[in-house]
Amino acid sequence: xxxxxxxxxxVVDLKPWAGKAPxxxxxxxxxxxxxxxxxxxxxxxxxxxxxxxxRVSLATVSRYLPKxxxxxxxxxxxxxxxRNHRDLIAGMDFFVVPTVRFQLLYVWFAIDxxxxxxxxxxxxxxxxxxxxxxxCERRSRTxxxxxxxxxxxxxxxxxx
Length: 160
Prior knowledge:
Shape: flat
Radius of gyration: 32 Å
Helix content: 25-40%
Distance between the termini: 109 Å
Structural class: alpha+beta
Largest sheet: 4 strands, antiparallel
Strand content: 15-25%
Number of strands: 4
Order of helices and strands: HHHHEEEHE
């Protein structure tokens, strides 16, 4: 007897794209026209397209929206504000620093933007100590004494 024939190989039809078919040129132009003439964003355009029977995802509509140009005047106004008020603005930050011995130090500091000078900083192993944050805030407004407890380091360079 002759051996049984082998089954045919599995034939795979490879498509040039995955998922849905690409969006038609007419739909793309409609999305751009709706956005420019009505100042609509993606969600509104998607809803309006679904009312006329065109089903597209929100991501697809967003992809074809024209890019909004930022208003250069608004950036200029913000820079002017910062330039005019830099002598009155102070910045504060709180962050954690890991040590070589895998301990954590908590640091708080205040900086004067006009002089680019550190007004005050505190370093401690335990920020939950009673009143640590309130003392940091109070010390940043007034000139603190240089002395401090053993777990907190304090320095101030604020002028009188």
